[in-house]
Amino acid sequence: AQPRTQKRIEQARRLLETMAIRTDDRELAALSDYLLARIGHSYAGTGSLEAAANGYRTVSQRHPDTVFGAYATARLILLDLYQPATDWPQRLAAAEERLQNLNQPEAKRNAHLAIGQACLFFRTDDAVALRHLLAAHALGLQGTIVRANTTLAIAALAERLDEKATALHFWRQFLAENSR
User: Fold this and answer.
1) How far is residue 51 from each of residues 34, 43, 92, 164, measured CA to CA in Å?
2) How far is CA 37 from CA 12, 15, 43, 48, 140, in A?
3) Angle between helices 67-81 and 49-62 (to 10 degrees)
4) Over its length of 180 residues, how does the chain's per-residue pLDDT go in tens digits?
5) What is 4-46 written as a DSSP string?
6) pTM for the complete prediction?
7) Angle, vertex CA 157, rays to CA 152 and CA 75, nearest 5
8) CA angle 71-76-95, nearest 5°?
9) Distance CA 63, CA 160 (A)
10) Which of 118, 106, 112, 96 is nearest to 69 (CA)?
11) Would you say 110 and 141 are in contact if contact means Cβ atoms under 8 Å apart?
């Protein structure tokens, strides 16, 4: 069960903190730290996004060579992209710099997807959006809706950028995967 009450959130937090400190298992410590950051992100509300970012930063720094360190870096990229205090070119540059340090395929895919979607959300550079969405697609998209939406976005962006072969390929792929 998910810790949806404040009491259960605190119980989960205490358990994970204890586990992170007492375990000799590197992966378990990384998982505990990552879940602590996720709890802070998911259950602390939007007023604690900086605390969530600090939690992910801690996981990335303590456990850089683990899958959870990579997932934390991908989450940091997502949070960085939507920080209103910084202008878009700085946010994009920071996200792309963090992306270069990812070597775990799922985290890399999620980061590419986040950057591509943020480019679309903020209506910035279509070529940057297309590059990242193509990279995410190449790494394998999970979930029917995510795959369909990304395939459509790639087709539309490629068409807008006059990349006809890419647009046609992805329009056809969308139709083949989503026809009834």
Assistant:
1) 13, 11, 21, 44
2) 12, 13, 10, 11, 26
3) 150
4) 555 677 877 777 788 878 777 777 888 888 888 888 887 777 765 456 777 888 889 889 988 888 898 989 998 898 888 887 778 999 999 999 999 989 899 999 999 999 999 999 989 899 999 999 999 999 999 888 999 999 999 999 999 999 999 999 999 999 999 887
5) -SHHHHHHHHHHHHHHHHH---HHHHHHHHHHHHHHHHHHS-G
6) 0.80
7) 75
8) 110
9) 41
10) 106
11) no
Between the alpha carbon of residue 50 and those of residues 53, 76, 111, 131, 153, the distances in Å are: 5, 10, 19, 29, 30
CA distance 69 to 59: 5
C-alpha–C-alpha distance, residues 166 and 161, integer Å: 10
State the Cα–Cα distance between residues 162 and 176, nearest whole angstrom. Answer: 22
Q: Could you tell me the CA-to-CA distances from 1 to 8, 52, 68, 89 in Å, in that order?
A: 10, 21, 21, 40
Q: Tokens at residue 51, please?
A: 């605390």
Residue with tokens 């969530």: 52
**Cα–Cα distance, 65 to 87 (Å, whole number):** 30
